[in-house]
Each structure stands twice: as structure tokens, then as C-alpha cells.
Specification:
CATH superfamily of the largest domain in chain B: Nitrogenase molybdenum iron protein domain
Strand content of chain A: 5-15%
Largest sheet of chain A: 6 strands, mixed
Structural class of chain A: alpha/beta
Mean pLDDT of chain A: 92
Number of helices of chain A: 18
Number of domains of chain B: 3
CATH architecture of the largest domain in chain B: 3-Layer(aba) Sandwich
Strand content of chain B: 5-15%
CATH architecture of the largest domain in chain A: 3-Layer(aba) Sandwich
Radius of gyration of chain A: 23 Å
CATH class of the largest domain in chain A: Alpha Beta
Oligomer: heterodimer
CATH topology of the largest domain in chain A: Rossmann fold
Largest interface: A-B, 78 and 73 residues
Largest sheet of chain B: 6 strands, parallel
CATH topology of the largest domain in chain B: Rossmann fold
Low-confidence stretches of chain B: 1-9
Low-confidence stretches of chain A: 1-14
Number of domains of chain A: 3
Radius of gyration of chain B: 23 Å
Mean pLDDT of chain B: 94
Distance between the termini of chain A: 33 Å
Amino acid sequence: MEDLCALRTAGTAACISEREQSIITAGRNKTSIACTTDSLAGSVSQRACVFCGARVVLNPVTDAVHLVHGPIGCATYTWDIRGSLSSGSEMYRNSFSTDMKERDVVFGGEKKLAACIDEIVEKYHPPAIFVYATCVTGMIGDDILAVCKEASHRHGTEVIPVESSGFISGNKVVGYRAAAEALLRLITPGDGEQIEKTRKLNFLGEYNLGGEKWLAGRYLREMGIEINVAFTGDSTVAALKQAPGACLNIVQCTGSMHWVAMQFEEKFGTPFMDVTFFGADNTAESLRKIARFYDDPEITRRTEALIGREMACIRPEIERYRRKLVGKRAAIYVGGAYKAAALIRQLRELDMEIVLTGTQTGKVEEYDAISRMLDEGAIVIDDANPAELEKFLQEKNVDIMVGGVKERVLAYKLGIGFVDHNHDRKECLAGFWGAVTFARDVYITTCSPVWKHLKDAQGVA
Amino acid sequence: MAQQPHAKSVRQVNENQCQSCMPLGGVIAFKGIENAMVLIHGSQGCSTYMRLTSVEHYNEPVDIASSSLNEKQTIYGGEANLKKALSNVARVYAPKVIGVLTTCLAETMGEDLDRILMDYVQEQGQISADIIPVPTPSYSGSHTEGFWAATTAIITHYARPTERHERINVIVPHISPADIREIKRILSLMGLEYTLIPDFSMTLDRPYGGRYQKIPPGGTRTEDIARMPGAQFTIQFGETCPDALSPGLWLNKTYGVPLISLPLPMGLEATDRFLKILQEFSGREIPKSLATERGWLLDGMADAHKYNAEGRPVIYGEPELVYALTRCCCENGAVPAVIASGSGNNRLALCLEPLLAGLDEQPVLLEETDFAAIEAAVLRSGANVAIGHSGGKFLTERHGIPVIRAGFPVHDRIGGQRILSVGYAGSLAFLDRFTNTLLEKKYTTYRQLQREEMMGINSIGDA
């Protein structure tokens, strides 16, 4: 630990002493990592805010209008930010803002919000409008709940407030919770309404960024199981309202959806299980887990047939890439811990060494699990910043990094390969063939001919 | 169809935004100062979103610190966080300049930035960085205003009474690093010494090589900014810049530096005007290389003029760029159908008035607008090509109208930082992009269109 911050580059400390407890070395640390705290001021955290967390969870609801109540920026920066795909409505790809100006901040924005809702309803008649609170509206105390309630009555449509004032926390997880509460508000049946239970399952924490929901649906259909609705990839308001009818919830992105799953269990008696479709082994394991729940010999038989067939198909492909990638050194920095863990496993399947793993929002028990998965000496980091990433990417001689847009440009500047595993990727990285796509993605960047030329230029001013 | 020469949106809701928020413009301006770092006083999300947008456009790491305010500070004040943030930025980045930009949140909280920063400097004793605060609440303006406000604040901070010297001042709006480099090349070819601000030509488009530095080398030197009051005159490419935020006007009012306001040198006329001034001042002839480039531009204009006449562009984005592009299109016979900006700016309409007066058809002018309004105007007016940032992508997706990318942000194509459109060479590069976009559409559709039209087949869709 003590030598972590000893390295100095260009006369500046590579990390800040207050951050030391958030960086541990696998196999060597006695204490757990410090995490889930607020970001340190001035540390240039890669995190976003509560609003961001809420928006990324709800935005894939395809036929809803997403209205951001605040000055323009929050809407601009999140317009169509989610790459999630839709099989129907494209409404969610628009970004609506109440575009608050100075006078609205001074005199309150409630009237303007009501007027905006009226305009939207008149123009589009959406089945639901999510109204997101932002820093300013939270600060000046606009009563969004009341405005939404009134508008709901006025128009006979769902107008759902999302309590996502950015300043509540820099941790997206708090925003996931705000989104989860909005979703529960939407799906809870009204008085006297009854939603019949079915044999279908809900897929929680799946956002259909590269069509993953569709692919999982195909697998499940082959097994004899139907998806009721996904939260929230390619979902509609009407489909979400049928969510209580599922007999099981499978949860992929645990950070955003565990709480929802627990609420389901409590309110509707729906059991849940964690799954992940990132990686071939993870996919096979998850499908078996689901099959076991249904406890039906026919489903089990079909599941094994599917796994056997797909595995046979992809094995030689993966092997081809594994041979090229064996021994290469990888770093992971992603939003949530479930994804980090899945990536560790996937990179291991390619015989790569993981020397750095970090997340924006991981919890202590998740980091403990990650540390146990890693080889001794690997760095585990919570809420990293560019200075720390730069330091470890260089120190650990990393060949390839998996992360998001902000990490990508840094990796390239350091002459390191990169795989996008974030909001705006365009490939399906889930399922059996997704594992091949992922391996190929890792291969084309790790073994690209460009790095040789860049290496030659390093050290040449 | 009735034209609305000056339609202002009366709708309340903004649907698909055409502008970014005020502090973002401030960030870009500070990135053009040597050894500078920026700190956003507000929620963590603000800085992360601005980083994301900048990173996608420039394909460069764009580090922006945040005071990471949370609920407690929102109630009790963000002073401690801001001070801690300043210290951490100083430690990790060792900058010479720290720009502190406020957000909607900090301004609504009523943070007394000047007082906090004065306290901080006193508490710290000696600090190695100059701290420059700029109020940039997003409810008061777009990124355009933020850019001008920060540029003015930087100049105000450093400018000192200086004896007359030979240099000229050049103040640029938010253009691409490639455009800045081209303006600098022209100035050098004319043998002039200058201080250009803000110069993010290298900091937001750094060449690969050497050791990675957290703050990229380059940018306007603060000692040069200090001497701006002694310059011969200021050229400001800011015809649409509001007086209250105008750095050139401030230098003029405070130090009597003559101000020459010019449109961005896009197109023949505007580049001629720029060069004429440089020529008059330097007393030098236009060098052969530039004269040749001018000749190529003229040649290209002749070659392409009939194709360009078929273009009915919608031009949108920041006012200064929109104005320059409109001029450039008009002089090439491509009459704009829609001219639009997300920023509210009463100068744009004034600038455009003489330019549009002689046109056969009046374009629709939209200010403080959004893409819902732009899209509607485009469909009404029959625009067939778009010029602007990536926000116009729906025009292509929904209506097959190609977007020639210009301005900020360009996040769905690579190389936003290298889009060159100024000077004779840059204007020709732009013109080729424009003409070829029209030609590409023509060649992929004309057989079908001719067949339908000449054979009298009704077609549906937006050809």
C-alpha cells in the first residue's frame, strides 16, 4: 500500500492520499476497500450523478416521453445517450427539457413544467411521461410530485416524477433507486386491478444495448420460456404494467435492479435470481439456473441441447482468439461490479491476465468477491480518476483496457488497446456468439498493427 | 408558402436540444490557455457530462475537475468542497491557471465565489496557480455565451497596462483546432506577430508522441495575454458576440486597443477581408502560396457553382459559425432554406439582414430554437442538405437529409477536431464537402427520380 503513491510523474503526485483506502492490491490487503462514499472534490472522478443514474435506467422505456425539468444542459448531455434498441416506438430517443431560464429559477418552474406537459400530451399523447428533477428544481423546491399528479388527472395519462436532483449524490446507484421507485409507481396495479400470474419471467437490469434482450429471448423461447418484459430494454409502458404477472425475475445488472427485485418479492411474491449473459460459461450457467427453477424435464432437455450446440459452435472460434491473446495484460474500469466480475471471467477464458479492475459504483462485498477472483498483486480500485488510471495502466504494462468513452481516449493516448463496454456500443456482447464478438473485439484492438508504430513514437517529443 | 423571416419559438418545451450549457463553453476557452485546468463548482454529473461531450468530439482526454457538491453542501454551502477541490487539482495537475466555472446549482445556492477564493488564497499563503472564477449558470445562456464570458474573464485577469508593441491580438470563437491552426498559418505567412486567444489548437488536438502529460502542451501564454493591451489592434472573429461579453470590446474600452470585428474567414469574401487588413497593417504583399490557394478556391467555385445552386441548406449551431457558413453558402449560390441557432442572440439577425436582403427567397430564421422546430421548418421549406453538429442526425435518419458536420459537438463521426473550413484552402475543403454531399445524393437518387417524374409515377417518401 505505502508505495502506491510514491511514483511521481512530471512533478505531480499520481494520486491523492485521501484516495489510498479506495485502492487495494488483491491478495495483500487485510482491510476492505473504501467505497460507496461521495467522490472526493477535485479528484476528477469518472462518476456522474443521480440524474444520470435515473435517466439511464428509465430511458430505454421506448414509448414514454422523458422530460427533464431544469436548465438545458441536463437534457442536452443525455439526449439519445443510451444505445438501447427498440422493436417499436422511437419516442425515447427524443430529449425533452423544460429549458428553465433565470426567471423560472427566481419565480419557480412549476407553471412551466405544467405547460410543457400539456404541450407534450397534445402533440404526442404518450402512455407515460417521466419527469426528472434536476439540481436546480430540487434546490428551489419545485413541487414536482404535485404538478405530476395534477397533470395525470388532467390528461388521464401517467405522469411520473423521478426524484433525481443531481446533488443528492455523485453515485449513480442513488439514481438507480430513484428510477426504481418511478418504475414501481408505474407497475403497481391500481385498486381492484388484478394481474394474473403467468409462466413468463421478467428480465431485470437488461437494457438491450446491442440487442441482448432479443438474443436472450431467443434462447429462452427455444427452452420453452417466454420473457414477460425486460426492465427496461425495449420495454413499453403497457408491457411494464404487466410485470407483476411474471413467475420469476432474473436480474442481470444487480446495481440498478436488486432493489426492484426485492420489492417485487415483497409486494407480488415473485422470486428472483442473479444471472449474466456476458461470457459463454456465464450464459450456460445462467440458462441452467433458469431451467432448474422451472423444474421441467422438457425444459432441461432443451436447455442442454441448446448449450451443447452453441458451445460446440463457438469453441473453435474462441480458441482461435485465445491463442493470439494468451498472456496479454488487461485492465477493466466499468460502472458496476456485476459487469466487472463478468468481464474478469470472460478475459480469463481467453487466458489473459487481469492486472487492474475498478468500478464507479461497487459495494464492499462485491469488491471482496472481485479481489478473490483476481491473482495476487492485481489492483482493485473504486471511483478511479484519470491520474490513477494513467499511473496503473503504465505501471502494470497493460495491453488492453475495457471501459467507457472517457477511458478510451486515455488508453489510446497511452498506446493501449480498448474495448467499449458501455452505453453506446453497437455490438451485442452477450450470449454465446456475443462471447465470440467480444473475443474478436479484444483481439482486433490488442493485436492491431497500429500499436507498433505508436510505440516507436513514444519518447519522441 | 408564407415565409417567416424571423420566427421565435413560443413553445415552452424544448424538444431535442440544439445547444449545450454555459460552463461547457467556459471549459473550451480555458483549455486554450497554457497549463490551465478547469474546475466546475457543482454536482459531479456536470463535469462528467461535459467531459463526455468534449471527449467524444475532440477524441482527446479532457480532464475537468468538480467540487462534487452533495446534499449537505447544498444546504450548508459548498465552500469546504471547493477549497478541497482546488488543493487536489493543484496537487495532481500542478497547473498555472485554474478556471473555476459555476453551475446552475452553485449559482442558485448563491455561492459567493469571489469571497471563497479570496479566503482560499489567504489561507494557503502562497499558491502557484492563478485562480480565475467565471459565473456560468446554464439558465443564463448557452455554451456560446460561456465561451465568450470565460475568454473575457481570462483577459481581464491578466491584462496589464503595456507599452505599445508590434503584435496584434486575435480573438477566435469556438471553432475547430484545425481552423485555429489555419488562421495561425495565415498570420505567420503574412509575417505578423500575434497573440491568439483562446488557442486550443494543440491542447484539444495533440499529436501523438513523447511522454503523456496530464495537461497537454500548448495554449495561449499568460504573459502574452498580459501584454494584449499594448497591441496594435484586435481582430475579433465575433460579429455576433454580445457587447457585454466581448473580450475585444473590453480591451478597446479599457485600454483603447482598436477593435476590428470580422466574420470568420470562411468563403472568399470573408477571407479576403481578413487578408486585406493583415496586408494593410503589415505593408506586405500577399505571399504567392496564399494567392495560389485563392486561385484554387476561385477555380473550385466556378467548377461547382451549378451543383451548389441545387443546395437548399439548413444551417444550425453557434451564431458565429452559422453566420460564417451562411455567408459562404450565399456567395456560392446555395440559398439557405433555414438558419437556426439554439443560442438566443440578437446580433445574428442583424448580421444576416444585409446578406439576405437580395435573395429571391427568404430563409426561415430560428433563434433560441430546438431540433423539433428546425425539423418542422426544414420540411416546410424543402431544405435538402444540412450543415451543423451531430444534433442534426435525425434529419438524416428520418428524412434522408444528409448532414455535413461542422461545429460542436460531432460525436457520431471521427475527427471533429480536424474539420477545416477557414482560409482559402479551408473554404475550398468545405465547399468540396458541400458539393460532394449534394452529388452523392444526386447520383444515388436521380435515376429513380427521373423515371418517376418523367413517366408520371407518383412517389411517396421524402426524396
